[in-house]
């Protein structure tokens, strides 16, 4: 994206460079005509004397005159990759950076990153292209959803049909069983009857013979009839026979009916199986579509995070607010004419300071909190956020961060409100993200870090690997509800008092750091994010000379000065985008390293 400075522009005028860079002699135009006459030179000197910003300059364009120039900084897109081990976005090097000795020496980017870099570039291109197809994808998604709905209805219908058929089959089978039983009973009856029948038949057949024999047969028959005690007339037999016949007919009919019914059912079942199979195949298509939806969701979620982050970055990753404390016993010395400026009142030398936001004496805790609340969302999104209070002892740091003493929770400050907001956000997102939180509380006194959430307040070590900074064996108390925070804050504050008395120091002579870690697991995509919210109540910023300290107090003050100065240097380096940021100059800045640089807020 960088454009060469066009050659022909050199002849258009002379670019005046600041003295710092090479003296006014070197400021003559390169290759082009040097500024003719002393006029331009004079302008240059005049401006550079009253200059505050080294990005300012002048340009003389022949025939047009002298114009003021300014070098603007523009934000550009930075290509990052997500490192799940670090739970963070790590910057990818620029192509040329890989070749520089500085980058090689720094060893920030391992060889695998360099190798994957080309691939990532082309992937980025395809992602951009995919993003362009977004509307199309959304339309596809809706059709896929509708298709899925229709398919579900069909499956239900088929299931119902299947159940109906199953019940029918059971009915028919039962019928078949009873019919069979009836039939066998009838057949047995018929057999009995047939066994008896030959006797009568014989008698009937013999009737055409001689009368004597007929008479004899009749006698035998009569005897037989008498023997069985049962006389069956011819008509009756016929009736019975017909009955059996019709019954048999019904039986056959039933058998064939059952057979057809069975065939029909099995046909239906195979059909059903077929359609189930087809549906399953359709189901696999739907799997794909679900994956598609998932991808879309993932992209959407990431987009929201990035956009929100962009918004926060536009507001500034470093924001400074000023709160003026009310003091009824003294005359007002600072006024806030609008919500950005603070001016000194009284005295001859009027001074004005500008902040991202200025709060007057009547500001409430809620008002102050309202300006920091937007960055709490960033914390839930997986960014590191730190909020610190800086000022002299008695200026209202603890009041603003924790609340009024001795009962801070009667009008809680930024700490409690921020954590409450975090709870609210996590609850709001509980359908898509599973959040876990824990809290740690430390105090930095004389460059020693104390764990305040242990009963026996213990010193802890700081260990850092790469961009990661960890406190060794620090107590991390899980918090699930608001009461847990209050308990942790209570415990920490009382432990702090104990530690302070032990060391014969005042609480305002140490930095109090509250670290809240928020780990989110996206239930849809499984991605994990880790954000931290660091809340610092810094030690008083008053100078040693003013407090007139000696001995131990002097050492204490020196430590405070050192850490606060380091903090100032870190912010200056960050503001100027310097390659080296002196985080390791003090325990405070070292501990806060992940929450100060990069895309931390
Ligand atoms: P620091 O922590 O900077 O040393 P404190 O927060 O302890 O200062 O404030 C000193 C005193 O002033 C406390 O009694 C506190 O309650 C009171 N105070 C500070 N800020 C305010 C404010 N905005 N409104 C009312 N009282 C305040
Ligand atoms: Mg305090």
From TrEMBL:
<dbReference type="GO" id="GO:0005524">
    <property type="term" value="F:ATP binding"/>
</dbReference>
<keyword id="KW-0175">Coiled coil</keyword>
<dbReference type="InterPro" id="IPR019821">
    <property type="entry name" value="Kinesin_motor_CS"/>
</dbReference>
<keyword id="KW-0206">Cytoskeleton</keyword>
<comment type="similarity">
    <text>Belongs to the TRAFAC class myosin-kinesin ATPase superfamily. Kinesin family.</text>
</comment>
<feature type="domain" description="Kinesin motor">
    <location>
        <begin position="317"/>
        <end position="601"/>
    </location>
</feature>
<feature type="region of interest" description="Disordered">
    <location>
        <begin position="21"/>
        <end position="41"/>
    </location>
</feature>
<dbReference type="GO" id="GO:0005874">
    <property type="term" value="C:microtubule"/>
</dbReference>
<dbReference type="GO" id="GO:0003777">
    <property type="term" value="F:microtubule motor activity"/>
</dbReference>
<keyword id="KW-0547">Nucleotide-binding</keyword>
<dbReference type="InterPro" id="IPR001752">
    <property type="entry name" value="Kinesin_motor_dom"/>
</dbReference>
<feature type="coiled-coil region">
    <location>
        <begin position="131"/>
        <end position="175"/>
    </location>
</feature>
<keyword id="KW-0505">Motor protein</keyword>
<keyword id="KW-0493">Microtubule</keyword>
<protein>
    <recommendedName>
        <fullName>Kinesin-like protein</fullName>
    </recommendedName>
</protein>
<dbReference type="Pfam" id="PF00225">
    <property type="entry name" value="Kinesin"/>
</dbReference>
<keyword id="KW-0067">ATP-binding</keyword>
<dbReference type="InterPro" id="IPR027417">
    <property type="entry name" value="P-loop_NTPase"/>
</dbReference>
<dbReference type="GO" id="GO:0008017">
    <property type="term" value="F:microtubule binding"/>
</dbReference>
<feature type="binding site">
    <location>
        <begin position="391"/>
        <end position="398"/>
    </location>
    <ligand>
        <name>ATP</name>
    </ligand>
</feature>
<keyword id="KW-0963">Cytoplasm</keyword>
<dbReference type="GO" id="GO:0007018">
    <property type="term" value="P:microtubule-based movement"/>
</dbReference>
<dbReference type="InterPro" id="IPR036961">
    <property type="entry name" value="Kinesin_motor_dom_sf"/>
</dbReference>
<dbReference type="InterPro" id="IPR027640">
    <property type="entry name" value="Kinesin-like_fam"/>
</dbReference>
